[in-house]
# Entry
Amino acid sequence: MTAETSQTLDRGLRVLKLLADTDHGLTVTELSNKLGVNRTVVYRLLATLEQHALVRRDLGGRARVGLGVLRLGRQVHPLVREAALPALRSLAEDIGATAHLTLVDGTEALAVAVVEPTWTDYHVAYRAGFRHPLDRGAAGRAILAARAQPLGDPGYTLTHGELEAGASGAAAPLLGVTGVEGSVGVVMLADAVPERVGPRVVDAAREVAEALR
# Structure
């Protein structure tokens, strides 16, 4: 902690990070132990964060991330999109297919950035803002594969005809990016995805992940 920083703000942000890393919430005592501060300080931090809807406490007293975080999260999409565009452009031009960055939004997959190739005669029209269930399409399935292997690398996922008749997709999850759950992929008009596309998509997902760290 330097003279230019706020100890209280630092502790509040640490509370949010700790709560974001757990699915079952944390008690005041657990937060006190993890932060190395007394319970009175934790109570004050939680009360302040609750006023801004960034934290909520259940009937058992366990603190969890509040819905106010979602409002902040909506502003993250433009930043993520900007960071991903160079890798998506390279992927689209290299493969000759529409490249996309997809993030989890609730129970759905949401395309937040799309880049179409400039040199092909035709390609799939895939637009930013397009939503689909996580269990349909390569983008969503790649995210689910990463969830199923939290400590491993699931590689890439291939699909055909799940979102659009005659279209095939390949996608790889973003790995190692705290607070961001998503995938990078391509969609093309083909009966099958060429062999080189899968590894190329994995490389692009790694580039995007590095840009976001």
The domain at 7-65 is CATH 1.10.10.10 (Arc Repressor Mutant, subunit A). The first strand starts at residue 55 and ends at 57. Strands lie at 55-57, 63-65, 98-105, 108-115, 131-133, 157-160, 167-173, 182-189.
